[in-house]
Amino acid sequence: MPDVHFHDVFADFEGEFEGLLTDYKGESRHATIRTMQAQLTSTRLFNENYFAFIAALDDAANRGIKIIALPGDFSDDGQPVHLQGLVEILERYRDKYDLQFFVTPGNHDPTRPFTTEAGKNDYLGHSGRPQPIFSFNHPNCINKSDQTNSSKNSKLPTPHDVACMDQVKELGYSGLFELLSEFGLTPKDEYFYYETPFSSYQQGVDSIGQKKKEFGFEDRQYEICREGSGGSYREEEYTLCTEIMDMSYLVEPVEDLWLLAIDANVYIPQGRSDDSSEVIFTGSGNTGYNKLITHKKHLLPWLESVARRAEKDGKTLIAFSHFPAADFYNGAAPKIEKLWGKNEFQLARMPKDSTSRLFAESGIKLHIAGHMHMNGTSVFRDSVSRRFMANIQAPSLAAYVPAYKIVRITHQSDFAEVETVIMDEVPDFDTLFPNYREEWNYLHSIDYPSNWNLDILNSKTYSEYTNWHIRELSRLRFLPREWPEDVRALLSGMTGQDMLIATQLQSSALFTVYKEWLKKNDKEIENMTTGFSHEWVQARKKAVSIAHEAGFNLSDFENWDGEDLSVDFYRLRNAGELAIPDITEGRMNQYLFIAKILSESAVNIVNQSKTDQQFHEMFKDRFRTVFDVLTIFRDRLPDNNFQIDLETGEINNINIE
């Protein structure tokens, strides 16, 4: 039997780039309220994701791959304007290349179980100004006569008048199912097998031909309550119990390959609207598998049954969903929580060990996820059952590093081969740059304080563009929002040389350097007080010595600063091995050297003054955590091209020509 090739285009379209109001082919169309209504059939809201997605599909088709899975967030919040464009693309590639597409929903499709009025304030409009677009029954459209374009603060962008179109509603499950049912959500005659958690299945029976009536929207409902799972799991005190759809399914598209598409969205009822007519749900972005095991219990026995039957009947089983099923930070979560806080760095999305254990116990060995915009690999091992589950975090086509995964398994083989394809060259990715330049010019004209760096528009390749993107995200979003103010202040003023020297300070001068940097004093550190200058000189001599012993020159560390460190930190967090080419080998080795020095310098505060204790806590403890986490992000399991032993869970790098 020929090799089974299972190909995943894991494109996590979660609004990483600003949207632009254009027609479908990319020609700029700055629609007004009047023209928009006449152009609804041709208008699309899109950005660089479109070009990257097309390039990835072309690449996959040229490789002869026939099966493509999309693990959620394939639309912008379930808006018809995006979904209709997606359907056109999938149908075109299905018909031209005989591709089979299989979708499973993410937290942006749908954002809630039922259709809601929606829209956004910041589509890119005419002259670089924001263009608000909302559905007709959204309050911003109903009350738009009361709105004004005037802004009291001249440094805030002034939007155009609100435009109204129902194409930006956020569809619920019913609308999504209607549009996307042909892409794995319903059975086809060419499938060898198909089932859902709700269908009556029996191996060897033609479930597709005889039971098509079991696969409709109304046949795939389950009850969920605020406190937990409904249905047979419902307890007497449970409230707000409501039926919604579960899109999970199992399909055998080619003989002996089982694809298990898990709808891991969990929308928990929270209350009722003001008139008590509708149930209000939470979003599913931070719930995932932690809440699936408490609020969608009907899936657990089904997952176990699928895995058991796959093993019994010799089927190759690959599960995929939008959400991670295991630790995506390589054990760094406790350190991250210690410095940045338990609500930062998307820690709310981290699966608990107990959650991953249940997943591994089900017998599913290989799971592929999106959601995090990260490239990574993890393996959870259950010490009791001795079972394991490998979780592959597929990168996003819309973010740094833009890539997708190819998974190859030879039938009845004990190994899965994973290849990561980086989308470096993307035709026409710069099509919208003239419009972005208009936006920059407008923001510059009003002295907007958070304007982005215009040099990004000099990018020659798509990967260079996303490299700029991670730099700007770090500068404008991640650092201001996620990092403690004192650590951020130090990063903004220190070079790598400063950091290495500061690791060797041992006296009351320690806190002085912290206070001076925190005040962003422009004076040279050596020119502070005479006493401190002496301490700094002594620390510098020690730094020269330890650097020389390790094969460095102290001046080497002057070539990077705190901003470079923070950007590389996020590069490694998001891209793992894929980030290494963008970080010079010398700088990486210097990071690791400082991390080693900090880890070996025991914090002894018994005989220290209060100010020394404060500095040790600040620098030699808190900065130690920064470098520790950076090192953990670097030293992860192989996540570029690798092989998974499906019997042992061992993962090893491989070379792919």
Protein architecture, described:
The chain is α/β, with parallel strands linked by helices and 657 residues long. It has a seven-stranded mixed β-sheet with strand order 5-4-1-20-21-22-23. Strands 9-12-13-16-17-19-18 form a seven-stranded mixed β-sheet. Helix 3 packs parallel to helix 5, helix 9 (333-340) runs antiparallel to helix 19 and helix 15 crosses helix 19 (610-634). The chain is globular, with a radius of gyration of 27 Å. Mean pLDDT is 85; it is low at 1-44.
Termini separation? 23 Å
Largest sheet: 7 strands, mixed
Q: Record the strand order, biggest sheet.
A: 5-4-1-20-21-22-23
Helix content: 25-40%
Total helical segments: 19
Shape: globular
Mean pLDDT: 85
Q: What topology does this entry show?
A:
Blueprint: E1 4-8, E2 20-23, H1 33-38, E3 43-46, H2 48-62, E4 67-70, H3 80-97, E5 100-103, E6 119-124, E7 130-134, H4 139-142, E8 163-164, H5 173-185, E9 193-195, H6 207-210, E10 221-224, E11 242-245, E12 249-252, E13 257-261, E14 269-272, E15 279-281, H7 288-295, H8 299-313, E16 316-320, H9 333-340, H10 353-361, E17 366-369, E18 376-381, E19 388-393, E20 403-409, E21 415-422, H11 433-445, H12 462-482, H13 485-493, H14 496-502, H15 509-518, H16 530-549, H17 562-575, H18 585-600, H19 610-634, E22 642-645, E23 651-653
Parallel strand pairs: 1-4, 4-5, 7-8, 13-16, 16-17, 17-19
Antiparallel strand pairs: 1-20, 2-3, 6-7, 9-12, 10-11, 12-13, 14-15, 18-19, 20-21, 21-22, 22-23
Helix pairs in contact: 3-5, 9-19, 12-17, 13-17, 15-19, 17-19, 18-19
